[in-house]
Amino acid sequence: MAANEWHKQHTPRRWHKPEPNWQKMPWHPGGQTIHTETVDDDFVEQNKRFQKKRGQYMHQLQDWKTYYYGSPEEQLVSKGKMRKELKRQIKELEEINSYTNYAKQDDSVKAMEDVKRQQEEEQKMQEEQTKKMHAFRDDNKTIMEIQAEQRRITRKLDWKHDQELLQHNPINWSCSLK
User: Among the four residues 9, 28, 40, 161, which has the most C-beta atoms within 10 Å?
Assistant: First the structure.
């Protein structure tokens, strides 16, 4: 036995397809019933009945079609009528789908226009906000420059005042030694 075959036999399957509910479809070929221990004859009879019902079910599923009683020409006419009716139904469905597609397309165009309009409004609001903030920054800058100029002027005036005091009373210009 090759190693690969041994590995396939001894490793569990990691994923398996979930089982459908066979109680709703008891004669479906995939369904399996769980049997309790019974007498073999009963089991055989039950299995035969089950296989017979399953065969009938499969026959109904696979071989169902309407049989047309009539000549081959009448069958052709009937099939032609059926084909025309199917084509008409398909055309109606296409018209309905095209109408709904147009409606969806209109809705999507409107939604895109709304989004674009909202983005433009947000951009305008952001530009206005940036203009306000730039103006606020420039005003603060001028105020700070004015305050710095006033401090420089007051320092200069204080220095001149101190120089004058030193000229009048160089030893005790603050008059603290009287």
Answer: 28
